[in-house]
Amino acid sequence: MSERFDGQECKMSERFDGQEYKMSERFDGQEYKMSERFDGQECKMSERFDGQECKMSERFDGQECKMSERFDGQECKMSERFDGQECKMSERFDGQECKMSERFDGQECKMSERFDGQEY
Q: Model pTM?
């Protein structure tokens, strides 16, 4: 399915053999792209606005989820991973970085947070 408007374009593609779903929308001056793909359980979403950019990417192969958001001059990355019983979360902002790691092997829970130049 493809629809096109005057100066604005909207494309939509759906495919269900192999479980694939793609959607793409584009607007005048402001761009909005969305792509979802479900073969191999991967979902990517990308949004772009006038002067500001927001990217979000989620990936679910092997129980891994990565999310990345980017705004105007500021970047936030979040990554979660659940192989074994380990969960790692990492967030990064403009000039400041926060890392959080939790681990649940045996009966042990470790949490580590790190900020800009300071660790506790």
A: 0.24
